[in-house]
Amino acid sequence: MPRTSSIGRHENGQNFLVNTAVIDRIIAQVAATDGPILEIGPGGGALTAPLTRLNRPITAVEVDSHRARALVRRLGGGARIIERDYLRYQHPSTPHAVVSSVPFHLTTAILRKLLREPGWNHATLLVQWEVARRRAGVGGASLLTAQWWPWYDFSLLERVPAHAFRPMPSVDGGVITISRRMLLPAAERNDYQRFVQAVFTGRGRSLAQIVAGATTLSRREADAWLASAAPKARLPKQLSAANWVSLWSEHSARSASHRARGSRQTVRRGAGASQRVSR
Q1: pLDDT 10s digits, 181-200
Q2: Please, are residues 104 and 15 in contact by the beta-carbon 8 Å criterion?
């Protein structure tokens, strides 16, 4: 299997991608995007060097000072190298694409930060295989994926065997892409994410019971919604992005109706009290 010559040390918990065929496919994904490129954790430059052939502005954020200086010497002006911890880096607000062979032990922290950052419209990421599967909803979605699905589409591209890295990790990797979308207004994000967490952590012997306990739907309404929208789902992780948007909409509509009824009842009680006082 073809490999690059840059093996590198196992620094900062990172396993370096050395398989040229996988590298070429990742570069092809980035080439299909537009605008400047931000690379997270370039390491020895296995992705950075071929990215320069796209003739687009590249910023690479590297926490290791030794590797950052080596990349500056290797690439010259082909890329802007920033020596910084990505978790403390602020993305530009202008449109850009993201690419990274993510250190496996930092995958969740990096993903959580990335999803909250502005500007970028497409990301191509090499992450731990099980994380790749769960982020893409294969075999069931994670809480993180369900919380962000209305605003991001997660797709699984390929499995990358452990022997494509040096040093070789104990698990395989997986390439995923993340693209922005807008299935719900951004203003609803915080309330929606709390709602998803309540359903994911809800208790019950059936999904209908969980939904009824965590939302404004009654048990009968939850049964009817599931029969129509997700008849095969037995657990929250088996709901699709469309299911979550639909369930949130049902919950929100009933919440608004309950608030309206409560307001009318308050007004009527206030009017009745005023009449008693006037008499």
Answers
A1: 999 999 999 999 999 999 99
A2: yes
Cα pseudo-dihedral 62, 50, 15, 10, rounded to 10: -60
3-state helix, strand and coil shares in percent for the chain, rounded to the nearest 5:
50, 20, 30
AA identity, residue 158: E
Which strands sit side by side in the sheet containing 96-101, from one edge to the other? 80-83, 58-62, 37-40, 96-101, 120-128, 173-180, 152-160
Contact in structure between 182 and 121 (CB atoms under 8 Å): no
Smallest Cα–Cα separation from 10: which of 75, 101, 103, 82?
Answer: 103
Q: pLDDT confidence of 1, banded at 50, 70, 90?
A: very low
Q: Are 129 and 170 in contact (CB under 8 A)?
A: no
Residue-wise pLDDT tens digits, 153-181: 999 999 999 999 999 999 999 999 999 99
Paired tokens of 233 = 């789902």
- Residues composing the chain: 279
What is the reported pTM? 0.87
Going by C-alpha positions, the residue among 161, 200, 175 that lies closest to residue 123 is: 175
User: Phi and psi of 165, rounded to 5°?
Assistant: -120, 155
Burial 134-171 (b: 16+ CB within 10 A, else e): bbbbeeebbbbbbbbbbbbbbebbeebeeebbbeebee
Work out the angle at residue 184's Cα, subtended by the Cα atoms of residues 194 and 255, and round it to the nearest 5 degrees: 55
Question: Which residues face 17 on adjacent strands?
Answer: 165
C-alpha span between 247 and 225 (Å, rounded) = 8
| Contact of 179 with 122, CB cutoff 8 Å | yes
206-255 pLDDT, tens digit per residue, is 999 999 999 999 999 999 999 999 999 999 999 999 999 999 999 999 98
